[in-house]
């Protein structure tokens, strides 16, 4: 039996900036009915979403409980781990930036940046409303490009995977040193049945090299970040990095990979992260169409006008629906 394929986007709420989803995927913010709910609307079109907000702050059970209530049975949330677990230096810098210069005690800040048992327990409590309702997909451990393969890094990764051993964990490694030590990295991830996240993004000399094959039979995890090389490291706004639309031809290899991988693994997650101006929505729909998954829900004519590739793929909402 073929594995269950889940296709969605990284995040569902992009209300501001040049790349907002409002007026494209969602109704414009001005004049929008008060009862309009973005998550419920999103869930009419996709059966999974990747949550990025939990990277910047611990998930709160009262919030995740509402997420579960606002989505239908069978909908799944894959949740990115809090930055303290994967980006302690970033966390330390954020804390330091909020303090006056004379209060930035480096040893104390370093100690604060290290995840402890209380942090893990807080995250578990935060995601429990999803897990208890069968709506938790995978936990995404996304490491920075500076996280290189060295003894201390391997120890940190092993301890993290051991702590989250009761959950399906997908690990995104970006530095080439991990793929240069392919066998050792694979053995470490397989020891904990963690999926090695397959990523598509601009490639540089230090970027990880991958073959896109599944490494565990339990589940598969792929993320498409776009290929905006020019704005990847140098950009005015962070959203500019994700201003890239994959063509149908560029998506075909990923569709072929997913089609092959679903014969091996039980569940597959594919998330499009090229979110600028809802390009991730357009590409997620195109992938669903190519792979033969049903295209659910209706789409605003503004989105189809922006991305004509969708014209023969989606149902276009009537004028009365586009204002609500």
What does this molecule look like?
- It is a single chain.
- This protein is an alpha/beta fold.
- It has one domain: Protein of unknown function UPF0759 (TIM Barrel, Alpha-Beta Barrel).
- The protein contains 15 helices and 11 strands.
- The strands form 2 sheets. A 9-stranded parallel beta sheet has the order 6-5-4-3-2-1-9-8-7. A two-stranded parallel ribbon has the order 10-11.
- It is globular.
- The model has no long low-confidence stretch (mean pLDDT 91).
| Beta strands, count | 11
Work out the helix count: 15
| Average pLDDT number | 91
- Elements, N to C (H/E): EHEHHEHHHHEHEHHEEEHHEHEHEH
Characterize the quaternary organization of these chains.
single chain
Radius of gyration from the CA trace?
20 Å
Give the N-to-C terminal Cα separation.
Answer: 40 Å
Q: What would CATH call the class?
A: Alpha Beta
| Largest beta-sheet characterization | 9 strands, parallel
The helix content, as a percent range, equals 25-40%
The CATH homologous superfamily is called Protein of unknown function UPF0759
- Read across the widest sheet, the strand sequence of neighbours is 6-5-4-3-2-1-9-8-7
Estimate the global geometry from the Cα principal axes: globular
CATH architectural name: Alpha-Beta Barrel
Helix/strand class = alpha/beta
Tell me the β content. Answer: 5-15%
* Total count of domains: 1
CATH topology: TIM Barrel
- Unreliable spans are none
Set out the fold topology.
Blueprint: E1 4-10, H1 38-43, E2 48-51, H2 53-56, H3 61-69, E3 76-80, H4 83-86, H5 88-97, H6 106-113, H7 117-131, E4 136-142, H8 151-163, E5 169-172, H9 176-180, H10 182-191, E6 195-196, E7 198-200, E8 219-224, H11 229-232, H12 248-261, E9 267-272, H13 279-291, E10 298-299, H14 301-306, E11 315-316, H15 319-322
Parallel strand pairs: 1-2, 1-9, 2-3, 3-4, 4-5, 5-6, 7-8, 8-9, 10-11
